[in-house]
């Protein structure tokens, strides 16, 4: 590795004292009204949780509400923003490469499967398909790499770095809503902000372009076009695999609408994960095409070119053996999967931990390049919880009432709400059989600089300190067999913001809200 040492970036002043500007009650109400209308007018929306609109108040299921959103774009250091965007193609390449390394992934799985049936079942699914042989060499990744700004106070002046929280290889969400959040803040900057009694220098607001809808849809379209024409004479299609009770449906619909807008000839369907076996089958041919029978008209059969998974990332979608059979059916079919089981496994926290250890990157990418050096700078310290020397050291930290305050303990799960933070770690660990500790990783907490904002959630405004998490999307299409990369693009950003008293930041999980960047 050429440049191991992180180059300190100079801290830009973050104006937590002056931004966002103070609002009179009337101004706040006006801003809220503008946001409520713009959001519903433009699809910056979610289906309501029952606590907000009870099911019996909306038996037809026609209600939608504003997605939680900040009243102002949050200041975000330009250097960190540029750093995260620039490194995305290298991350895409890295994770495509990890997905192809079955031996490496097998080792990772072995280290966590004692305490983790979900990961064990995923691996079994891969092994079953491997036995008869994969028929689709192409693999699609719609990735999202998440970061927080790390403020290193040990240097003078303090330095700022984008540090990776995690890398998502399955169901990376909020690209749809993110495009619209950015547009909302731009709209407010040209209509509402200039009218405030403490007018902001709106001209100085640097709101970067944000187009993940186009970027992510283009990734799916690229895979669709790379799928060989049907030999069976059926029309080909894209299937969005979704959860039945999904509330974040418009986020997904925006991608679907974009595909239909830019490629009107591509049919796109939504299929609940629980209905895979009912509505799809695998052709008894050498190629094993995935056939989709339209539920509303079962005589219409389409061949699935791309399966885009917005479900299947956690144990909740696999209540029984049939659910695993359904995943197996997709995996053994000729459809291009986004993601394959192997790519899903590449996105585990265990893999992230191992990649952050010295010398491991070289196995996957040319680690002498500047871009690999840039990627390395985004890593933070992550430790195994196994019986290795590093693992035993980490166990000491995790069990110590003082030391544990600087860490988060993570299982191999996605979707938010699964981590254990700071002082809760020792008791949690003691409640888990020691032979299962290896299925967790211990990560240093990233401490971002203070930012404040106002959050509009379920019609109420909360004001205070917030923590921002940047996500950068990437699309990658590659050949699992040859390693040839057919597409590798950075695909826009997401900013999610949570109150600084909240540990978790997932918007869907109810903790965070949508935001956009005002670069400083
Ligand atoms: P998931 O796959 O469930 O989203 P994450 O690793 O993203 O898991 O963790 C969930 C949330 O926990 C993040 O969005 C972030 O708010 C917080 N978090 C995770 N790791 C860290 C960290 N190292 N430092 C600070 N906050 C973290
Ligand atoms: Mg995740
Ligand atoms: Mg996350």
Automatic annotation (TrEMBL):
It catalyses: gamma-L-glutamyl-L-cysteine + glycine + ATP = glutathione + ADP + phosphate + H(+). It comes from Drechmeria coniospora (Nematophagous fungus). Residues 236-346 form the Glutathione synthase substrate-binding domain. It is an enzyme of class 6 (ligase). ATP binds at residues 144, 166, 349, 410-419, 421, 443-446, 469, 498, 504. Binds 1 Mg(2+) ion per subunit. This is Glutathione synthetase. The keyword ATP-binding applies.
């Amino acid at each position: 590795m050429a440049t191991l040492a992180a180059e300190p970036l100079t801290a830009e002043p973050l104006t937590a004292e002056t931004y966002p500007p103070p609002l009179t009650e009337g101004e706040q109400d006006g801003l809220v009204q503008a946001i409520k209308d713009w959001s519903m007018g433009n699809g910056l929306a979610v289906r309501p949780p029952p606590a907000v609109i009870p099911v019996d108040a909306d038996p037809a299921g026609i209600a939608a509400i504003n997605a939680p959103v900040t009243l102002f774009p949050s200041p975000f250091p330009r250097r960190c923003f540029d750093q995260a965007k620039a490194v995305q193609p290298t991350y895409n390449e890295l994770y495509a490469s990890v997905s192809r390394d079955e031996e490496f992934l097998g080792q990772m799985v072995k280290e966590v499967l004692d305490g983790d049936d979900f990961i064990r079942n995923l691996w079994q699914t891969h092994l079953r398909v491997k036995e008869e042989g994969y028929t689709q060499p192409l693999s699609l990744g719609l990735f999202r790499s998440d970061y927080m700004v790390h403020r290193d106070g040990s240097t003078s002046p303090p330095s700022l770095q984008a540090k990776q929280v995690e890398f998502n290889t399955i169901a990376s969400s909020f690209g749809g809503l993110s495009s619209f959040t950015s547009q909302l803040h731009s709209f407010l900057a040209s209509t509402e902000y200039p009218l405030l009694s403490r007018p902001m220098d709106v001209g100085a607001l640097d709101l970067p372009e944000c187009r993940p809808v186009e970027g992510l849809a283009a990734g799916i379209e690229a895979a669709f076009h790379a799928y060989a024409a049907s030999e069976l004479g059926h029309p080909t299609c894209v299937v969005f695999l979704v959860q039945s009770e999904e509330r974040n449906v418009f986020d997904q619909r925006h991608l679907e609408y974009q595909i239909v807008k830019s490629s009107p000839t591509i049919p796109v369907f939504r299929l609940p994960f629980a209905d895979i076996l009912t509505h799809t089958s695998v052709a008894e041919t050498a190629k094993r095409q995935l056939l989709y029978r339209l539920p509303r008209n079962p005589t219409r059969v389409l061949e699935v070119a791309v399966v885009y998974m917005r479900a299947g990332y956690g144990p909740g979608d696999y209540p029984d053996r049939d659910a695993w059979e359904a995943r197996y059916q997709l995996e053994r079919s000729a459809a291009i999967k986004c993601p394959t089981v192997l790519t899903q496994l590449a996105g585990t926290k265990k893999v992230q931990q191992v990649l952050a250890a010295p010398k491991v990157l070289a196995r996957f990418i040319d680690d002498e390049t500047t871009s690999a050096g840039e990627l390395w700078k985004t890593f933070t310290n992550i430790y195994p919880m196994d019986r290795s020397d590093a693992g035993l050291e980490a166990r000491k930290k995790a069990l110590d009432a003082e030391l544990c305050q600087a860490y988060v303990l993570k299982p191999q799960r996605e979707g938010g709400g699964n981590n254990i933070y700071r002082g809760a770690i020792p008791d949690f660990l003691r409640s888990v059989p020691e032979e299962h500790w290896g299925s967790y990783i211990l990560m240093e907490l990233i401490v971002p600089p203070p930012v404040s904002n106002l959050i509009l959630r379920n019609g109420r405004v909360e004001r205070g300190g917030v923590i921002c998490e940047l996500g950068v999307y990437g699309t990658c299409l590659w050949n699992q067999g040859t390693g040839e990369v057919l597409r590798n693009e950075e695909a826009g950003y997401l900013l999610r913001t949570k109150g600084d008293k909240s540990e978790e930041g997932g918007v869907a999980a109810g903790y965070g809200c949508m935001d956009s960047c005002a670069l400083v």
